[in-house]
Structure prediction request, 757 residues.
Amino acid sequence: MLDILRSIIQEVNEARDLTATLNIIVRRVQRAMGTRVCSVYLLDKYLDRYVLMATKGLDDAAVGKASLAPNEGLVGLVAQRAEPVNLDNARSHPRYLYIPETREEEFESFLGVPVIHSGEVLGVLVVQQKESRVFDSDAEALLFTLAAQLAAAIANAEARGAVVGLSPTGLQTKDPSFGGVPGAPGVVIAKAVTVFPPADLDAIPNRECTDIKKEIRFFNDCLEQVRIDISELKMKIKGQLRPEERELFDAYLHMLSDSALGTEVVNLIKQGMWAQGALAQVALAHVRNMEMIDDTYLRERATDIKDLCARVLFYLQEKTKSSAIYPERCILVSEELTAAMLAEVPKDRLVGVVSAKGSAHAHVAILARAMGLPAVMGVIDLPFAELDGQELVVDGYNGKVFTNPSEALRERYMEIVREEVALSEGLEQIRDLPCETRDGHRVALWVNTGLLTDVLRSKERGAEGIGLFRTEVPFLLRDRFPTEREQADIYREQLKAFHPKMVTMRTLDIGGDKPLPYFPIKEDNPFLGWRGIRVSMDHPELFLGQVRAMLRASVDLDNLQILLPMITNVKEVDTSVQYIKRAHQELLEDGWQVKLPPIGVMIEVPAMAWHVDALAKRCDFISIGSNDLTQYMLAVDRNNPRVSNLFSTMHPAVLRVLKQIADEVKAHGKSLSICGEMAGNPSAAVLLMAMGYDILSMNATNLLRVKSVIRNLSFEQAKQMLEQALQQEDTESVKALVDKALNEAGVGRLLRSSKNS
Ligand code: PEP
Ligand code: MG
Prediction:
């Protein structure tokens, strides 16, 4: 049975599309099992019916026409139960239903298995036999295994079909949508540009080529380049090779010859596909087939093919790199967006972002928020490779992406865009007014920055300081460590732009989901690993260089304060302070007139909430990193969209800890700020203010909303809300309570952006 399965799966892997896949399955299964009929029914969600999509044995004319509702017939029964149904006398079963179009003969036995993907029954695979017999376990197992294979192919095709607005059976048109998690608030309609990491065959999007002849020439040039490389390599290590290893190089050269892989790729280009896409398709088909074969030698050849094709891809990408074209307004789409991908797009062209992986708390989402770009993250099953060039609607409030929007849908979203503009124009008026409650309680609204553009946007919104400059952002956007001098220039820009307001510079916080491309950190549990201050402690040269650059940048400005991330014990604080003092002393000795800046500690590790006393004694201020504090308190990976619904800064336990920290820091008379995303959520901001936080540091996008909410409330009201919130037992009750109170205060319409934390 294993052989039959393997050969069917191999054939399925080569199929061009879903129809071909289904036809291969029904034909091969019918033959292998010796049954009279084999058919596949697929669920068309928009019709809510299982439609006959391929058959061997029933009337071909019924394909695409015959269908059953989930409560009809034996097919419906399999779907409803999501379990196999194996009957020796199907016609006597109460659910038996004869569909005339299929011209079904008098079949007795019936075996149907559900095709399930992500817990959803996408279809039913059926075999039927004339004589009465129960199908044996082998038959059931074969069908079951094939159904699992089929599920992925159907889900994939369904996602793809959705791109062009067709239901799975192609019988209905719709407004296709993909659900993810809200990454950054806002709504945008524009064309998608799919970007992908270099040299990754799996990530190449589908694109057409405009000039086929030119593309073939280009491909052949790159192929030739790899051929030269391999020949050179062979010459270089000639003396060290045994004859059989030399043969391997000849085999490589043969694979690259025009008669082998090259021809297949060229044939696809001739059909209009761009060279990278054609190469990826050919390579992956070969690799999949070879990996399936039960032969170690051939399986290893699959690795060779991958390696060779990746080399060709390298040249194809190197040569097209500089010509990446971004339309005037583009939405960046990728399987996993990175900060570097974001930075490559000219700022005035980028209007939205969509990432198949990652969550609202991923750093790329934080960057999107800081840049005011609507973002949807963690869009599972997103056919990102198919979206290149398509018009998309990105709904960053609800975490939805629509492809091929209908006129009606586009109009609905345009309305929201207009509403947004009106709202922000209204908010502009409070830009220069203080952030104080109706009864005169003041709280400072600062911003989080990473790029210089954030600084400019922040100033436009009336920010009163920078509560968190993520210094790793400029590090992430380079291909090597910036020198001390380069760093000093970057830091001075930030300090100058905000002068005389304070700028809080956090020392390098790499690791976790922020590995530097040129300083790779490979760990099983990166968020529990070598990140933040831990890296700095092991690399004092990096830390000292950075601190010196900060201090040098602050000469004559004196608006710098330094913040230490991911502190887990007092030794880290003591050592950091010593280093900062040492850097300061060295600069004084070198003739720089610099002042020792205030030094602050971030509370991000839960244990530190019970260690405030020791921390407060050692530093000038405390700042809460609520993103990490929540991630670690609730044991929810901030990047994992599967558990993002569990991530909540409004969890009563999180609120209680934040309140406890506030009480202790205040008892020490130290300044207290919060710089996690929570501060930018208007509902949470009210609670934080009531707890006694002096500074709320947030992304610039939300600043005026938060200010508007606070200005419409009294401090007394906020304190009452906090008191009640702290008595709740779950996140939902806290949110409901705060939303109700804010709605009653007439600021409900400002809450739309608060879904992110
Ligand atoms: C935080 O963890 O809340 C924080 C501000 O740091 P980052 O998001 O950069 O990890
Ligand atoms: Mg953090």
The pocket of phosphoenolpyruvate (ligand 1) is lined by residues 366, 468, 470, 509, 604, 625-628, 675-676 (CB under 6 Å). The chain is about 45% helix and 15% strand. Residues 753-757 have pLDDT under 50 and may be disordered. The chain has four domains: 2-163, 177-196+335-422, 202-321, 435-754.
